[in-house]
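Lab meeting notes turned into a lecture example. A postdoc, R.K., suggested we walk through two folding results consecutively so the class can see how the record format repeats. The first protein's sequence and structure tokens come next.
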Amino acid sequence: MMKREVVVRGGAGILMMSVGACLGVCAYYIQKKKLEAEFERRMKFEIAETKSYYSRLNKKEEFADPVKLAEEYEEEVSQYISPDDADYPQVVPQEEFIKNVAEYELITLTYFEQDDVLVGDEDHIITDIDEIVGIENLSKFGELSKDNNIVYIRTDHLETYFEVIRDKGSYAKEVLGYVEHSEPRGRPRKFRRDYE
């Protein structure tokens, strides 16, 4: 009688371990799918930003004709004239960013004040500043954030909250390692005279 109970209990334990292992494997694959989708979304965003940056730098594609580009830019900016426009990035209080009731994505960016550069993950330069955080919002550090070097921005059309941290330094110096050199001062050269 005692032997039979031990066998039954052992079988139940094995069954529970098997169920637990199956649940763990399922959870792993679900999380893996979510992370792969997020990685792919971020990768597409970064690639688009990089292409845009180098197109501007080399004046290719839509940046080849500056007059046309200026006209398109003027049209694009005209839709953001009213800061109350729902699609335009809005400065929000720190509490709204923390609570994230809308369940938007939360992203931290760094704004280098000296050379007016906004960067994202891995110090990638963001070129479409106005569409992502709103250019004038970069003058609102400390507004609603409880920190003079932070501004929180909600961008509804991207379904994202941005925490922008101001770095009063320079991107070129702090990230790229650019160092300005002054003219080197050497010893004055001596010239030989003919009679020596």
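The second example is placed directly after the first for contrast:
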Amino acid sequence: MSVRLGDRVVLHDITFDVEAGEFIGIIGSNGAGKTTLLRTLLGLIRPSSGTVSIFGRPVRRGNRSIGYVAQRTVVDPDLPLRGSDYVSFGLDGERWGFALPSRARSQEIAKAIEAVDATDYADKPIGSLSGGEQQRLFIAQVLLQQPKILLLDEPLSNLDMRSGQEIVNLVARLARERGMTVLFVTHDMNPLTGVMSRVLYLASGHAVVGTVADVVREDVLSDLYGYHVDVVRVGDRVIVVAGDESCAHP
């Protein structure tokens, strides 16, 4: 599959399969094509060549078996909307007007909030919550549609290291409990190393897919980037460092 946006080819001949229940980390720097890939899987962008199918069928917009947590900036701190009200949009997003309150509806929302361990602050204004607390509520909203696949676009941005790791662990737990397949976009693979089954590494619109041990190597990533890169391991962390572009591969 390739994707062209205007005069630019953003994704070049990307080929990969995802098994049910896998946790795939989609790794790459800004501009590598990570968000474009997710938008293509959502049916929002058509590939310029090749095909994309999910559950054996061509992708389409509005597929409720796919949950999507979009990349977000910080919520306005003065926003008076309660966290639970925001979560409820997961039930109301395709409905005109206001939903009538009911016990079943309230219980469904409460269960989604409980699943992400956000009950204690769900009735506070969402703008007053920390980035990690907001992210939990964003995920709870998507859980209401009971997705089989969960796509997350940079959910760790604007989070500190501890909060980011808590979100990763939360998503991994939800995936296990609900049998969900996860595609998790981030520019730093380190928080995912303990939970992801494979990594899809994007650079300059090209991709390589495999286990961390198979992909995150100097020879593999140098071929992907088109110039030499160093893979440095410091304790449990992996750092990819750009080398000398004069060593570019032909």
